[in-house]
Design brief:
The structure is a single chain. The protein is mostly beta strands. The protein folds into two domains: about 30 residues, no CATH class; about 140 residues, Jelly Rolls. About 0% of the residues lie in helices and about 50% in strands. Strands 4, 5, 7, 10, 13, 15 and 16 form a seven-stranded antiparallel β-sheet that branches. Strands 6-14-11-12 form a four-stranded antiparallel β-sheet, with no helix packed on it. It starts with 8 loop residues before the first strand and ends with a strand.
């Protein structure tokens, strides 16, 4: 035999609301320990020209969402979460060599506080395309006060005119992170 408990709020022993329900099946977590926030995602709204074979910060200038206002999309292009913990960080960069068979290699890097913590590389010297999507992802510990994350792209283009592809219509190039709960 099954039991049914009906409630619109679940509280801890201190009277603090842990979960609430709107009565229509939508449950909202209220305790910070069970929220995957801060979280954000940002995209590049237009193409960004970069120097050939040089690490260049990608300027993700359009926020898709930013739960706690921790992403700077106008000057530093970095995520500085205000809650300590482990964060799943991801980015994808659409590199464009401007002409067929000009792409040699690309490296996308996650930087924490100015130092590389993860990278992903595509080397296409044997059969170079014009453009390619390069993803990178990692879990990074953040202190919740001064730690920050940025994305850098390195594109080696035989014509020396690489571009990171952006669009106001598509998420060609994006960067995001969210707090991992239970870790």
């Amino acid at each position: 035999m099954a039991s049914i408990i009906k409630a619109n709020q679940l509280q801890d022993f201190g009277g603090n609301s842990i979960l609430t329900s709107d009565g229509a099946g939508v449950v909202t977590p209220n305790a910070s320990g069970i929220k995957m926030t801060p979280a954000f995602e940002a995209t590049l709204s237009a193409n960004q020209g970069i120097s050939d074979a040089t690490d260049t910060k990608v300027q993700f200038d359009t926020e898709t969402f930013d739960t706690d206002g921790c992403y700077d999309n106008s000057s530093n292009y970095r995520f500085t979460p205000t809650t300590a913990g482990k964060y799943y960080v991801y980015a994808r960069v659409q590199s464009d060599a401007q002409a067929s068979a000009n792409f040699s290699q690309g490296i996308i890097k996650i930087y924490k506080n100015g130092s590389r913590v993860a990278q992903s590389q595509m080397n296409m010297n044997g059969n170079p395309p014009e453009n390619i999507m390069i993803p990178v992802f990692n879990i990074v510990d953040m202190n919740g006060s001064s730690d920050y994350l940025e994305i850098y792209a390195y594109i080696d283009d035989t014509s020396s005119t690489p571009t990171v592809r952006g669009s106001s219509s598509y998420a060609w190039t994006s960067f995001g992170a969210y707090k991992v709960i239970g870790a």
